[in-house]
Design brief:
627 residues; Collagenase (Catalytic Domain); alpha+beta; Neutral endopeptidase, domain 2; zinc
Length: 627
């Protein structure tokens, strides 16, 4: 706390000022928050558990995870093996023009090259996924989507800032250094990378904004897809992707599929037709850079330097941190089991379920008092809130030995072959996805108990609170009830609110797609929302010299306001200067100070508790409220 600040002037500085002043931003991070500190605690716990000696009576799945972690962490072994595994992978995938002076245009067929890359987990221009049908969630469908650009999830926004942004320059440098490390002359590497980045920039400019959500989704068939985009052999490509395991699903041209962004594909193939084959092949093959982080220290350092520049960090994570995070991501049921048995007891789960029940009662009162919501929609909202499920701590089956053994029976990890382990896991992920096509879709998917994140799942009408999130300072069994309700209780409230926002309102109490609000209710909601948008748009974050985008952050701002308005300390954050600008430009959340200030400005209870005079900064005369 910073008691030199009047809480009625700036409650964020009052509550978090001392914490921000005393907190230290680790060199490998762009910011430090309560949650990043919790993540570090979880990582330290997992490191100890993964490095423990094997017990004779533990499931073999746990031994598989420990073998994988050991193969990742053995840097001496990675140096001894060198780039040989990558060279074998390259021979399997296809010819890379930059690396092959004898390459010519006849060496590449687009469908075959994309198939080869997909089999090693890469989808640079076309992504095929299997997921529940949005109109019939009981059935799985093939989704045809935009591919993944080279800089990750933020690639589109980065390229839209311009070809010469700091991030694009860092990406260019990384690709150039990797080609040189692979034996390409520096001038040739420069020329090829310039063409790769130019093509990817053009691809980024035809992608669809994620903010569009499911608006552009089109249900069709493979036959119709081939009519719409006849320059690509869709039937051969999709069937090729299905050939995994002993009994691959048969896909005919009448197979129903879903295109997530038709406008992208309308522009993709004309773009590829005007792109030289060599440039296209170089771009596709450059996606292999993501596998080079599993090689020697020289390759890893090039990629880590790029990530450091991309995120604005001063250094990178240690090797053990990288390996713990990777093991946690690839063996989630195993790490969940280990973490829960070590750091989460049954009493915590029972107490959290009690808190959820009490906050549900309070939220039902909020819904009843929402005067702008019509009677039919209000009745449906109340029924949805009553039906909402809470999944607390961990999935029950992770504690069952038989479940773990079946889930990891085919993993066959080795302590000596990290690169091959990664390829094996990619194969198994692809196999699992293909096998889902003819299976009934599941709404209640498994979640990782080690996640330091609470969330609402609209397709199952459930809120999820993993054990990794149910830790100090958000929650502790030794805290008073008021502290726990003000901590994790406020988060429970905000996640419940997501069930009734612009996404949640598209699903009914069972998680099925259904529009259950009337037009009048939608119009009234927009009016209520406009107040929140205007309020946050007026906030100017001085460190970034920019105003907050109230429209982009509206969903999370409404959720913050719709919670219990007691999230004072949870949003304490200390950011690097360059990251502050990035947060204002692209994040769905308002910067931390305004998540607190904006919420409490709308709270009469806060103003009363702190005796803030009407008209003071923290108690303005005009207040906004949706829920």
């Amino acid at each position: 706390m910073d008691r030199s600040v009047n809480p009625c002037d700036d409650f964020y500085r009052f509550a978090c000022g001392g914490w921000v002043k005393d907190s230290f931003i680790p060199a490998d991070r762009p910011e430090v928050t309560i949650y990043t500190q919790m993540e570090e605690d979880v990582q330290v716990t997992l490191k100890k558990l993964l490095e423990m000696e094997e017990a004779s009576n533990e499931p073999a799945a746990i031994q598989q995870a420990r073998a994988f972690y050991a193969s990742c962490h053995d840097e001496d072994q990675l140096e001894d093996i060198g780039r040989e595994p990558f060279d074998k992978l390259l021979a399997q995938v296809g010819k890379w023009p930059s690396l092959d002076s004898a390459w010519n245009d006849t060496d590449v067929e687009l469908e075959e090259l994309l198939l080869s890359l997909s089999r090693v987990g890469l989808e640079p221009i076309i992504s095929i996924q299997i997921a529940p049908d949005p109109n019939d969630p009981s059935v799985n469908r093939i989704y045809v989507s935009e591919g993944k650009l080279g800089m990750g999830a933020e690639s589109r926004e980065i390229y839209l800032k311009g070809r010469h942004s700091r991030e694009v320059r860092a990406y260019h440098k990384m690709l150039r250094q990797l080609l040189i490390e692979l034996g390409v002359h520096s001038l040739d590497a420069e020329s090829d990378v310039e063409e790769i980045v130019e093509l990817e920039s053009r691809l980024a400019n035809i992608t669809v904004c994620p903010c569009e959500g499911t608006k552009g989704y089109k249900s069709t068939s493979i036959e119709e897809l081939e009519i719409m985009y006849p320059m690509f052999d869709w039937s051969a490509y999709i069937n090729g992707l299905m050939h995994y395991g002993s009994a691959p699903p048969q896909v005919t041209r009448s197979e129903k599929i879903i295109i997530t962004s038709p406008s992208f594909f309308q522009k993709l193939f004309p773009l590829l037709e005007t792109t030289p084959t060599r440039v296209m092949a170089n771009y596709l093959m450059s996606s292999l850079h993501s596998h080079m982080k599993h090689l020697t220290s020289r390759f890893r350092q090039i990629l880590l330097d790029f990530q450091k520049e991309l995120k604005g960090s001063k250094s990178q994570r240690t090797r053990w941190q990288e390996c713990v995070a990777l093991t946690d991501a690839l063996f989630p049921e195993v790490t969940s089991r280990l973490f829960v048995q070590s750091a989460f007891g049954p009493d915590e789960r029972a107490y959290l379920e009690e808190i959820v029940g009490n906050i549900r009662i309070a939220f039902l009162d909020i819904l009843r008092q929402a005067e702008w919501l019509g009677p039919d929609s209000k009745a449906a909202a109340i029924e949805k809130a009553r039906s909402l499920k809470a999944r607390v701590g961990y999935p029950d089956n992770i504690l069952e030995d038989e479940f773990l053994e079946n889930a990891y029976a085919e993993y066959n990890m080795s302590k000596e072959t990290f690169f091959q382990n990664m390829l094996r896991l990619t194969y198994l992920r692809n196999l699992a996805q293909v096998n889902r096509l003819r299976q009934p879709a599941e709404k209640n998917s498994l979640f990782s108990a080690t996640q330091v994140k609470a969330y609402y799942n609209p397709k199952a009408n459930e809120i999820v609170f993993p054990a990794g999130f149910i830790q100090p300072p958000v929650y502790d069994s030794v805290y008073s009830r008021s502290m726990n309700y003000g901590g994790i209780g406020s988060v429970i409230g905000r996640e419940m609110t997501h069930g009734f926002d612009e996404v949640g309102r598209e699903y009914d109490k069972a998680g099925n797609p259904q529009r259950w609000w009337s037009k009048d209710d939608l119009n009234d909601y927009e009016e209520q929302t406009e107040c929140i948008v205007d309020q946050y748009s007026c906030f100017r974050w001085k460190p970034a010299q920019m105003n907050i985008d109230g429209l982009r952050t509206r969903i999370e701002n409404i959720a913050d306001n719709g919670g219990l308005r007691q999230s004072y300390r949870l949003w304490c954050t200390n950011d690097r200067d360059e990251y502050k600008i990035e947060k204002v430009k692209s994040h769905a959340f308002a910067p931390s100070p305004y998540r607190v200030i904006g919420t409490l400005q709308n709270s009469e209870d806060f103003a009363t508790a702190f005796n803030c005079p009407l008209g003071s900064r923290m108690n303005p005369e005009k207040k906004c409220r949706v829920w």
